[in-house]
Amino acid sequence: MAELIGNLLVGQSGGPTAVINASVAGVLQEAGKHECIEEIYGGLNGIFGILDEEIVDINEEKAKTIEGLKFTPAAALGSCRYKIDFKKKPEKANQDMDRLFEVFQAHNIRYFFYAGGNDSQDTSHKIHLEAVKRGWDMRVMGVPKTIDNDLPHRSEERRVGKECRSRWSPYH
Fold first, then answer.
1. Per-residue pLDDT tens for 48-73?
2. Rounded to the nearest 5 degrees, what angle is found at the Cα of 41, between the Cα atoms of 159 and 169?
3. If DSSP codes are grouped into helix, strand and coil, which group holds residue 141?
4. What angle is formed at CA 105 by the lines to CA 69 and CA 102, rounded to 5 degrees?
């Protein structure tokens, strides 16, 4: 399998907590160690902001600032509670997916990390399925974080993939 080279986008949604910021910091710190990741972006205000292409260049942030996220309350990138709901709003969900993939393609997003609870994990899964359907080669990682400890399914086996061969996992 050829190495997947492109950019990384990280977002967060749901309840804002320092734990979510710490997870985002971990993603950012690890991403900087991999040559297959060219640029690192943050999506402001979760999927809702990404739909509006509210994306910031994280490469410009100093290592000390990223480290400080581990101890920062709230949601550093902003948050939302926005569902892509194919059951209740299929037309809107399809429009949202079209727009998300326009943004992903415009910024060559090949790695997408989304930190949050149940709905965030569901969104990550839907984006993964859509990427497969569209033939857009990308790795989608849900970063589970919840203050309710109510995630129904957990897996320690999900990995970024062979492309970034180090022992990188969002569960470090």
1. 999 999 999 998 889 999 999 988 88
2. 15
3. strand
4. 95
- Give the chain's count of helices (H) and strands (E): 5, 5
Give the up-direction half-sphere exposure of residue 41: CA atoms within 13 A in the CB hemisphere.
25
Q: Cα–Cα distance between 51 and 162 in angstroms, integer?
A: 29
Q: In the CATH hierarchy, which fold is given to the domain comprising 6-144?
A: Rossmann fold (3.40.50)
pTM: predicted TM-score of the whole model, two decimal places: 0.84
The single residue listed with the structure tokens 């399914």 is: 153
Domain boundaries, the chain: 6-144
The structure tokens listed for 63 are 């290592």
DSSP annotation of 28:
H
What are the residue numbers of the active site?
Answer: 148
Per the CB < 8 A criterion, the answer to whether 112 and 127 are in contact is yes
DSSP single-letter state for residue 117:
S
| Residues 76, 91: Cα–Cα separation, whole Å | 31
Residue length, the chain? 172
Q: Which of 104, 97, 91, 93 is nearest to 137 (CA)?
A: 104
